[in-house]
Every structure is written in structure tokens, then in C-alpha cells.
Amino acid sequence: RRGLLGQAASLGVTCVAPGRAIAVAAAATDRITLLGELRSLLSRPTPPPFFGDGARAARIDAVLDGLRAVNPTPQPGSTASFAPLAPGTWRVAHAPHIAKLSTLVGARFDPILYLLQGDGSITSHVKYSWLGAADGWLSTIGRYGSIDGSTSFVQWDDAWWEPGATRPADDPAAGAMAPVVSGLGKLGFISAFANFPVEYLDADLCVFVFPFSQTRIAAVRMGGGLDVWGQGMTEE
């Protein structure tokens, strides 16, 4: 019991009833165990994306269910909660709706990267390859913020396309057919699909719900404890 209380104190839990401190320490232990299992699932046999492995995807969802129950960040959709954690580069590690789309159209979308800045700006870069014959990057830029304590938003402002590029550019003007792609992109930005309930948030993992498909997305911080690629923006 003293050991559990010590763990609770190391997590910043002070001046609380012993029973509460033990509960907090137990939750922290559960979270560490679940995060360890998640890293194992993401890294073996190969890092994401993975297709046709229903059992692996189902187990990841079960682990994310468990993590949601021990989320360490109160009101993860609020600016006060995500502002200290958001800045950095995040990579999508689990997105069932994208896996289904990839299988349907015979394409691969990876890596999917979100670059978040402390001033609320966001850039996304998605590398695509189709039938081994066409590849490049699709990118968008905008801003992110809070709807309420449990929901964040992304407001996209512009889009660009770089066919054949090995790495993405950060300037929409650098894309191919920039005026056309930008116009089409703006027509496709639907605000109703840009509000994301946040289920879990810590320094290395963000789990949120994609409203269009009502599926869960897990993104991990590049360079963090769940980075199973360890290569930043390069592809496997």
C-alpha cells in the first residue's frame, strides 16, 4: 500500500484520501500496461499501415477502449488541456476507415502526418501510392481549436497536390495546378465533419473519433514512446 501511495505522489497526487490515491496509482499502472501492449501491437509483425489483419485491429480497438477509461487528461478537447501537448508532428497509426478505403481503391495512404504548431495552425501531409504506378502527396493547411471540453475542431483553409514528390512542401503555391486544387479542396471542406470528439490524450498518443464514419483514429507523436517507425516523415 505504501508503494501505491508513493506512485500516486510521484504523479502529483497529494492531500487526497488513501483510497483515492490507491485508485489513481492503480489507474496509472493500468495505463502503462495498456500503452505497452499498444506499442507491441503497432510494432509487430510490421508497423502500420496493415490490411486484412482483423484480429490485430480488433485488439487495438479493445486496448483503446481500456485507455479511454484511464485517460490522464481531463477535458482533452479543451484548449487548456491540449495546448501543452499538441505542438509537434503526429502520425496516424490506427484508422480503420482508411484501411477499408485503401483496400477498396487499391491504394496506400501512408504516412498520414499532422504538424501542429503552438499558435493553433495545422498542416497535414498524406503520401499516396496507387497500384505502384502513381504516387505523391496531398496536403492541407488550417487551424485547430476547441469546441468544448471533449471536442476539438480543425478548420482547413487550403489544399495542394504534389504528384511524384518524394517529400511534401509546406507552401500551397508549390503544388500542381494550384488554383484548381485549392478551389476543389475548399469545396470539400465540410465543417460538420471537422469536429472531433477526443477520447484519450497524453504526450505521445491522441485518440479521437472521425465523425463521418464514426470510427476511431489513433495518432502518435513522432519521436515519442509509441513511434514504432522512428523515421519522421520518411516511408518504410
3D structure, described in words:
The radius of gyration is 19 Å and the shape is globular. It is of the alpha+beta class and 236 residues long. The chain has an 8-stranded antiparallel barrel. The N terminus and C terminus are likely disordered. It has 6 helices and 8 strands.
Instruction: Kindly report how far apart the N and C termini lie.
Output: 46 Å
The oligomeric status of these chains comes to single chain
Tell the overall outline: globular
Rg from alpha-carbon coordinates: 19 Å
**Secondary-structure-derived class:** alpha+beta
The side-by-side strand order for the widest beta sheet comes to: 1-2-3-4-5-6-7-8
What is the strand tally?
8
Number of helices: 6
Percent range for β-strand residues? 25-35%
